[in-house]
Amino acid sequence: MHTIWKGTISFGLVNIPIKLHAATEDKDIKLRTLHKKCHSPIQYEKICPVCGEEVAPKDIVKGYEITKGKFVVLENEEIEELRKKTEEKAVEIMDFVEMQEIDPIYFNRSYFMSPNEGGVKAYGLLRKALTDSKKVGLARIVMRSKEQLAVIRVFENTLLMETIHYPDEVRKAADVPNVPADDEVSKKEIDTAILLIDQLTTRFKPEKYTDEYRASLIKLIESKRSGKAAVTPKVKEPEKNVTDLMAALQASIDRTKPPKKTTKRAAKKPAGKKAAKQA
What we know:
Distance between the termini: 78 Å
Oligomer: single chain
Helix content: 25-40%
Number of helices: 6
Structural class: alpha+beta
Strand content: 15-25%
Largest sheet: 7 strands, mixed, barrel
């Protein structure tokens, strides 16, 4: 597994040399943009709209737009110097908290943590301490020129670091338009909705869920590559628009009910034949 970062975890006076590995991967199918006429990949050049010249990487600087069309220019050397001052190769655990106190909206990316040289015992200590205390570590890390908050927890006997957003990076729910202030539904509607939820409740099995669009796209690509005629997958007919809320809930419950089991009764043999057989 590829190492993307090396450093240490520190809590109190304990330091654990670790490596970070990406815990997830993007499996989206990348499609190139081609010229329809000759199927050549389209290239995108960096052209200055004022000078009309192609701009080389060495001639590009960063800028922060303070007003429309007016920028504060930051040289690459200035940014790099600032990054070196703030970036310490350490994951500093500041606090320990209950996992359920952190809303999932804060979570960003996941990384596996493995012990680096000399860190096996301390790695095991932190893993055991987190497991027994049922707590997670709230840490700070500078990675890829950005300081981030992170949660350190145990996942399948491995330490896992999940970067989380700062509070000011999460937009306010109060700003979402058209959200009703009150629930204008009847008790019967609520009870029926809960019944539907109960019927659809199951244990979470991640292997049960697949990316149907990606699978269909792979089939389409394979059929074109092998010269076969592309087959259009069957699409489920859209559900009829049921405007009545109770009718929609009841129809959903009826659809999720398990099929009734039919029991076959054994046919009784005539008593006369049975007696004749025994004779």
